[in-house]
Amino acid sequence: MAPLTTLFVWTWNSLYRVIVSDGSDVLVQGGALFPDPTPAHVDGAITGGGPLMTGWIGVGLSMEFRVGEKRFVTSPVVAIASEEPVVSGPH
User: What's the confidence (pLDDT) of residue 77?
Assistant: First the structure.
């Protein structure tokens, strides 16, 4: 996704705002643990015991990301919405 694209990811338990920095590097905000935008790396999506689907965030799957060396796995995703970055040109 393009840098500065914002994803709103609703899980069973929380709402996360994920802003793309570069590739899988993002700022994540939401849930109980991230009240402020926090640099993170999205590893991908996982099912209950299945393999990690690298680079994915999908409805019905849990989102897995890392902040530093700590790994976080969300409850299953129920909805995703995106907002493209606003690009302003010369006036």
Answer: 96
Q: Which residues of 24-54 are buried (b: 16+ CB within 10 A; e: fewer)?
A: bebbbbbbeebeeeeebbbbbbbeeeeeeee
Contact 80, 7 (CB under 8 A): yes
DSSP 14: -
Boundaries of every domain in the chain: 6-83
- pTM of whole model > 0.85? yes
Expressed in percent and rounded to 5, the helix, strand and coil fractions of the chain are 0, 60, 40
Rounded CA gap, 13 and 20, in Å? 22
pLDDT of residue 51: 83
**Stretches in the chain below the pLDDT threshold 50:** none
